[in-house]
Amino acid sequence: MRSRQISARVSSPIGLLLIVLTFTATPAAAQYFDQSVLQKDFESADFFFRSSYLNPYGLDGFGPGAAGIISQRLLDLHLSPSLVPADSARRTYIYMDFRSDRDRTSGDEFYIAYGAAESLDQSIYPPYRYQNTYQEAEPLLALALFTRPVASLPKLTAGVTYRLIANDQSYYDVPTGQYRGLDLAAEAAASSGVVVDVYSGSDQMRTTGHFTSLFAAYEVSPSWRLGVRADLTAFNRDGEIGNTFNPVSFGRSNDVQISSQFDARSQSYNHVDLSVGVDGALSADTRVGGSLGLLTGTADQLQEGDSRYQYTSGSLLPGEDGNHYTAGSLRFTELTREGRSAYSTLFVRRALGRGRTLTASWRGDWQSLDLAGESSLADSSISRSQNFGTTSTNLSAYDYFRHDERSGTGSLDGQSHRISLGLEWKLSDKSTLVFGAVARHRTETTATQESVALDYETHRYSEWNDGDNENRYLYDESLVEDKDMEWTLDSRRASVQIPILLTHALSEHFEFEVGFTQRMEDIRLKDVVLADIHARESVLNGTTSNDSNLRERYRQPTVYRSSVTTSALLAVTARPSPDFDIRLSVSPRNSTGYFAQRTTQWWLGFQFRP
Fold this sequence. Notes:
Elements: H1 2-10, H2 13-21, H3 27-30, H4 73-76, E1 92-99, E2 102-105, H5 116-119, E3 133-136, E4 141-147, E5 156-169, H6 184-189, E6 199-219, E7 224-245, E8 256-281, E9 286-314, E10 322-353, E11 356-388, E12 393-426, E13 431-465, E14 470-505, E15 510-540, E16 543-555, E17 559-577, E18 580-593, E19 597-608
Antiparallel strand pairs: 1-4, 1-19, 2-3, 4-5, 5-6, 6-7, 7-8, 8-9, 9-10, 10-11, 11-12, 12-13, 13-14, 14-15, 15-16, 15-17, 17-18, 18-19
């Protein structure tokens, strides 16, 4: 019964119109394999549904291992919002930095396994195409201000941090590249007559993000402090790619080639993150603290596209030679993720004597998201060719159509733990050595269910006749399916990072920092799709087969991936006065393993202590 309902929908005027018009999305992105599912097309970033902080050591490689290892005012806020008042002698503290983008490069072409990119802090747009260089969005500007706002309340400290992402780049590598370097439209506009866009196109991806955090801490006693934090994040990524090739003819009025493709993607994400923290002195040498927080957020992603290709040469009238090919499709996909993440932190900091301070910390995150999505795809092509010789005739024809409708829901549940142990050792009045270890472990399960209505048709015909011999070939195939798809992705990501940092003061006005860190990461992914087929009707050369209540499983081989990333840090600080310093940092990074990359990033930071 459900199979006949699907057939009725496809044979409706709308379905026939799609075949005739043959509009398409970019073919490489439009096709669904039978075992594919909606949520695999969602683009994620490392801060989606996770707490985000300003990190003055957030350079490639060093950033993930800085909190809890390096003792710095902004880094201490990662442990607890109660650590805002770090300097009782100065009323105000201001921090500002400017950062370069990260250009990620890769050596050989590969097809990426879903989920592996996110685990390595790498974002690659589906359908996971190889890219020579991808410019990852990095905060263009970071600001922090902490002060005692009320003179009558010297025990109250308040502050704000803000980071801005602003990035423009290409959407994808353009498949044809026909319009690159051409300005034919401007040239035609300068002449008289009607302007015809022979080559035109667009290729852009714009990313903007605003990350604002508000802090407040109060000294409830000489030994204990209480703090609160509110973080508001808004992020948008929008872009489009397209090109049009529309030559009027190839020297003959009846030879025409027209092609166009357009693909647009928009994504928005926002979250509200609230937390409360406390810290206090157990003794003159030991301080402990922790925090509790809850983050709620929403992510929406929309993709739509169409394309068309037409080629005509000669004539298709009886007795005349000619070729004709038309292809196209139409695609629309909408995905949403909504949910929350609860987290907790604990830390202890103890002075060991002889200029040594040990800090141990733990952070746990528990995430739960609701997933939803829907997609519509119509794809078709028509081909005709005929050739009439003096003694022979050659004819061929081909028709293809595919219609795919999907909608579904699901959930994503995960938890992660981070443990760090760092030692700060003041070797002399001019030199300080910091080293430690950071271990992370994250497990995540994604489970989705979606309904699929699939219709597929293809027809092939060929004929060859030389007067004495005749050969004909006919092939007809169609498939109508009504099914539910269940997808389960289990992932485990574990890493260990060892950072080392040496700071040495050349004088009261200059100092330099030299750092080294290595991170070893291991990934395991299990991907299984189960299809519950309610009705399947297939036709092959006139023979019809009907099946119902079938179950098929598509189990991908378990993916194991490892990576070793080595990073260096070189920084020079100029301090014209005790109230102001300028810091220039450069960090080269190299990784081996599944993602072989080399990056270099620089930062320029300022600190004011009026």
